[in-house]
Amino acid sequence: MNPLNRLHWFVLVLFIPVWTRAQVTDRKVDVVYKLSEATGEYLFKASNPNLCEYTVQVDVVDVVGMRSSVKLPYVGSVKPGETTLFSLKPTKMGEAASFRYLYTATRGRLFQAEPPTYLYTLPVAPGQPVLVQETQAMGKVLGVKNVRLTNYTSLVFQVKNGDTVFAARRGVVINRLDGWAATARDDVRESNLVEISHADGTFAQYARLKAGSLLVKLGETVEVGQPLGLVGELPGLPPTIHFSVRYLPPVEVQPSKEYKYIHLRPKFSALTIESGDYLISGRTYEATRPVELITQEMSKREIKRYLKQ
């Protein structure tokens, strides 16, 4: 293979997002109502069978003779399990009343401001030097407008084949894709991965993992520095870890709104940068895992227990 062509191919791979594969384990969020025969009130509830919060928007249309307990359309976050949303009551008992409703459910919590800043550790072993590349969607690089990927950004860590990938922040495993092995260049859009939901409503994805190497289960709470799996490889390409963080941004509520994610640039702690700074693309950093980062999202009781270990 021509070395120059090989380099061009590597750059191309860096810009191919894999978030589209992260939705396969989602389960349907249901919004239903229950009618009280005594009062004529319709009580709306959401049932979320997933492992993280979802944002639901409920549009009520063609309303006749009813009033809502909240401003419509209803938009709110629902945790796993059942959540009461709002109610519709007849404006006058005994008179005709009717309505129709439709809803959407999107993974994540709808932020009203940018998420709070948390520090991340590099997803490699402490003391390991790692070269970092910051990437964007190919459409943005080439000047092709794509609303879904406008804010896409990812960090690519160049590592060695078989290296262990570690959790950069505490969270709950909400998605894992395993058992896929790359066999050709056309497969670069596929990836084994782990997706983790953080307490602040953001999501982190660790992609390009080795088939059959994942060490965590769905619903498992992982701590900073916990092994997630091993680094995989693509034919003819150097091994890398693709890491990205996203969230649902504040938007103007509209009927049947489809919410879009924003990818944020996380701040890291490393030996070769000021703590709490952004990584600079093209530089090499040495990983560190200070106790204050391991415990930054633990309760006082959890910290006390951890320090006794």
Automatic annotation (TrEMBL):
Q: Which InterPro entries match?
A: Cell_wall_metabolism_enzyme (IPR050570), Dup_hybrid_motif (IPR011055), M23ase_b-sheet_dom (IPR016047)
What organism, scientifically named, is this protein from? Fibrella aestuarina BUZ 2
Q: Where is the M23ase beta-sheet core domain?
A: 154-247
One molecular function GO term is:
metalloendopeptidase activity
Q: Which Pfam families does its entry note? A: Peptidase_M23
- This chain's protein is named M23ase beta-sheet core domain-containing protein
Which domain of life, per UniProt?
Answer: Bacteria
